[in-house]
């Protein structure tokens, strides 16, 4: 069976906030209820439920998928928690898609959830212990001891190489932040909505040079879900759904810093993108609107180039010339992107998907891309070490 | 507090490492910068592993690295748990052509340039833990 007829029947997303106002359970219920209502499908029809780890900031959750299935009273034929860092929610979605294609399930619910706020622990010893163990778990026994927390220094070195290799400047990067904020100013869900100027980006403090505060996505909390349905279920839906017409996935054998391969051109994104375009039978130029997982301004440019929207080193100029604007050649990150929408990693790809589905349905309000028919959604993990790309289409 | 950080760091290195990790750090403490080479196919790999990632052969031997290389990229951490700030971090491409390694750079950020010749030195974090760092070759 071709994947071209698996449909997204319903979507739901929270706003992006620094901290959750409610517990993960309360929020999961709200998002799941809204996604099912959006699909106009009763909860009894759900036969597959796939969730992500709720981030790495708080205490670990054990058997969260099983616990949530009990909490939400979902009886299923397939249940899993998927964890691959930034691609987690799409790893879950890819598995859900394959379960439908195999014929085992018909209505799959996929939930991405991430609580980023670090809990303040009064006991300093526990706080330090948690921090060091998490860092070393994430970066390994050879990089871990250098005391890097959030992966900003890794991306800073990739960005430094990008500017060096492509002869670009920090002002070129600033343009990206400005354009994304422009989009966010039309998105009531975005964490940051107030427009900014190149001067303001340039004047923001360095986090790790050349990355400045306004080149960086803010870690945030949020949740989003979608309801995937089989072709038979799709036929009987009250509203015309959006179809997943292409999917690509690739993982380079590296974690954060590739030993020898480029820091500025991602093999994983090139491969995943090529597979997604080929399976949908389309070219990058056919895409009307895209949401990509660019968590820093320079990274955003590299991703767009590796997806073949622009030649290597040319994406910055494309931003400047308005080619990525809502009325440009390809509207990029109408949501405001990671930099302005905010970035809850385990939920981020699902939020990108929600934005593209709304764009293709024509429900994106002030930030609607005119006549959007073909959309692309991109996710990555580590430092562009692995990638999943989806092509979504309105039929 | 430093004592707690040192203690937990050692535990973390052990927990998230493999059977060769402690030997690697023991050698660093003795001021030798080493990795492993496959005795079958000759592949050298950093960081060291108890097997060859290329051919999965388990006959590997420790080899000392020259400790020389070129600066591939560098940045500065404004906040570091381990080192006083600002702390310069870099990637050094080793002369042995086995890729780039993440390390601390013992120099001012402003003095550095991509492509600079670098050489290894060692920094004692505690009585138990020594890390490699690189300094520009003057």
Structure description:
The complex is a heterodimer of chains A (395) and B (138). With 395 residues, chain A is of the alpha/beta class. Chain A has a single domain, classed as Thiolase/Chalcone synthase (Peroxisomal Thiolase, Chain A, domain 1). Chain A contains 13 helices and twelve strands. Chain A has helices spanning 24-39, 64-71, 88-101, 124-143, 152-166, 170-184, 198-203, 231-235, 267-280, 297-306, 315-320, 337-341, 348-361; strands at residues 7-13, 48-52, 78-82, 107-114, 206-208, 211-212, 222-229, 242-251, 289-291, 331-332, 374-381, 386-394. In chain A, the strands form two sheets. Chain A has a ten-stranded mixed beta sheet, sandwiched between helices. In chain A, strands 5-6 form a two-stranded antiparallel sheet. In chain A, helix 6 packs across helix 10 (297-306). The radius of gyration of chain A is 20 Å and the shape is globular. Chain B has 138 residues and is α+β, with helices and mostly antiparallel strands. Chain B is globular, with a radius of gyration of 16 Å.
Q: What overall geometry of chain A do the principal axes of the alpha carbons give?
A: globular
- How is the biggest beta sheet of chain B arranged? 5 strands, mixed, barrel
Taking strands numbered 1, 2, ... along the chain, how are they ordered across the largest sheet of chain B?
4-5-6-8-7
Largest interface: A-B, 38 and 44 residues
For the terminal residues of chain B, how far apart are their CA atoms?
36 Å
Structural class of chain A: alpha/beta
What is the typical, i.e. mean, pLDDT of chain B?
A: 94
Largest sheet of chain A: 10 strands, mixed
In total, the number of domains of chain A comes to 1
**How many structural domains in the coordinates of chain B?**
1
């Amino acid at each position: 069976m071709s994947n071209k007829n698996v449909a997204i029947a319903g979507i739901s997303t929270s706003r992006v906030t620094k901290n959750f106002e409610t517990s993960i359970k309360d929020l999961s219920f709200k998002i799941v209820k809204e996604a099912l209502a959006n699909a106009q499908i009763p909860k009894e029809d759900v036969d597959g439920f796939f969730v992500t780890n709720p981030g790495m900031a708080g205490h670990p959750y054990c058997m969260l998928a099983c616990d949530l299935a009990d909490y939400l009273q979902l009886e299923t034929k397939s249940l899993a928690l998927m964890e691959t860092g930034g691609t987690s929610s799409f790893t879950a979605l890819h598995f859900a898609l394959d379960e439908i294609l195999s014929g085992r399930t018909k209505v799959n619910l996929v939930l991405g959830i991430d609580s980023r706020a670090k809990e303040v622990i009064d006991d300093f010893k526990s706080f330090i212990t948690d921090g060091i163990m998490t860092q070393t778990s994430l970066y390994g026994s050879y990089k871990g001891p250098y005391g890097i927390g959030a992966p900003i220094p890794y991306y800073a070195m990739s960005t430094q190489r990008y500017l060096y290799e492509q002869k670009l400047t920090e002002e070129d990067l600033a343009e990206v932040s400005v354009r994304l904020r422009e989009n966010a100013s039309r998105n009531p869900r975005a964490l940051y909505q107030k427009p900014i100027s190149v001067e303001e980006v340039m004047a923001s403090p360095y986090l790790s040079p050349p990355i400045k505060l306004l080149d960086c996505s803010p870690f945030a909390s949020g949740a989003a879900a979608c309801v995937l349905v089989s072709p038979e279920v799709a036929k009987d839906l009250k509203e015309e759904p959006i179809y997943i017409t292409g999917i690509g996935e690739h993982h380079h054998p590296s974690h954060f810093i590739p030993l020898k391969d480029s820091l500025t051109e991602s093999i994983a994104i090139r491969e995943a993108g090529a597979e997604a375009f080929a399976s949908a039978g389309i070219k990058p130029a056919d895409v009307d609107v895209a949401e990509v997982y660019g968590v820093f301004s320079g990274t955003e440019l590299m991703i767009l180039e590796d997806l073949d929207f622009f030649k290597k080193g040319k994406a910055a100029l494309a931003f400047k010339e308005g080619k990525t604007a809502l009325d440009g050649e390809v509207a990029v990150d109408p949501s405001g992107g990671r930099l302005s929408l905010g970035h809850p990693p385990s939920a981020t790809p699902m939020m990108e998907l929600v934005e593209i589905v709304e764009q293709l349905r024509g429900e994106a309000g002030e930030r609607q891309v005119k006549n959007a028919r073909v959309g692309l959604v991109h996710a990555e993990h580590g430092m562009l070490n692995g990638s999943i790309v989806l092509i979504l289409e309105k039929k | 507090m430093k004592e707690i950080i040192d203690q937990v760091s050692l535990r973390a290195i052990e927990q998230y490492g493999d059977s060769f990790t402690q030997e690697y750090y023991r050698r660093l403490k003795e001021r030798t910068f080493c990795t492993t080479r496959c005795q079958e196919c000759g592949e050298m790999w950093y960081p060291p592993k108890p097997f060859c990632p290329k051919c999965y052969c388990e006959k590997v031997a420790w080899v000392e690295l020259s400790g020389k290389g070129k600066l591939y990229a560098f940045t500065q951490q404004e906040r570091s748990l381990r080192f006083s700030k600002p702390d310069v971090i870099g990637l050094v491409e080793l002369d042995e052509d086995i890729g780039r390694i993440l390390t601390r750079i013992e120099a001012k950020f402003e003095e550095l340039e991509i492509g600079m010749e670098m050489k290894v030195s060692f920094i004692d974090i505690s009585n138990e833990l020594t890390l490699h760092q690189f300094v520009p070759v003057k």
